[in-house]
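By convention, the token line describes the chain's fold. To illustrate:
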Amino acid sequence: MKRSLLALLFAAIGAYLIFEATSRTPDFACVPLPDHTPLATRHGNDHWSDDKLRVFSALPDGVIIPKGWQAVGADQVTQTCALFPRHQSVVFIKPEFWRIDTIKDAKAGVDIRRIALKSTSESDLHTIDQRIADTFTNVSSVFPLGFTKAQKAVPHDVLVTTSIAGDNKTDATRIYPAPGPNLSSLFYDLNSNRGEDLFIHAIAHVYNKQRPRPEVAPTEDHLPKVEYREFVASWAELAFNHDHVYLRKRVNFLTRQNKLLTDTKPDTWPTYSALKAIKGLPGPFGIPPQNDPAAIEYAHYYQSPLILLAVDGLLSIYAPDLTVKMILQDIHKGKSPGLLSSFKTYLPLRYKRIETWLNGTAPIPEKLINRGLIRLHSGFNEVPH
């Protein structure tokens, strides 16, 4: 009898403490959701409002939780208010339409929750969960120190927005909440290789930008940490997308744009729409880039991954027991001061050549790019399941 009374007493105390934790007045300003205004960004809608999902641009204050809705990716949640990370979208879901499951196979170093519509088929859920697990497992292998104890305290949510806004074929028919330390999204069709690339890129930024340890974003002369982060994230797209036919086409496309920008012909320029504006800028186009969207686009998503592929090609000749992935792992362990320093250490006689690629004064050799790509295909970057 005494034991039963004690159990009831402890249960009551526990319930009270939970109530106190969730119903307390938040220690941050809390404002109502703004009016919904449609907004399509580069990859999809960053504003969305229907009976299942509400997405708004990042807000500096906490947001009053609409009655019957649940916050996704928040830093702090009380009974009435949610505070989201800076720059990350404000997201609410109507719980009756969604299922939330923990991804158990991801060696991520942090709890991963997948949030998908209940109408999603079991087959698609399996594909989604496998992609999430593989991506976190592969990307985390480049960051051996993982997350700090404090960084592990909040789970990371992956929101699946595929098909909610339409057929996903244009920005207007995709939903792309701005990612952050607590939120990423799968927003392309599940069979889209480019969608997989963008997810890999976003997860690399969880480790080196959104929840960074000091080691994972070194700053060197001529290579600020913002540029280094993009080197790693854009390389990861190529290293961990295992559709070899797609990768060949993707690398050919990147290589073609690099050739058009670095040849000596005055009337040849990149053909891709996001790079066309670069024609009006003075060259050469190097890293770090000029403060212009087209130059930044080129440096981050074309030049950076091609340089690392070509460096892997050089390593295959002059240091065959070493790979770019190993260099990145050492940097992220704090065993190397940075990427340029590593190039100088392991390829001292080739560094002047690498500098011309960094400066944009010479095309990145296709033969070396292909050697690096072959290395990726040969399993150097695979993580065993």
The mean pLDDT is 89.
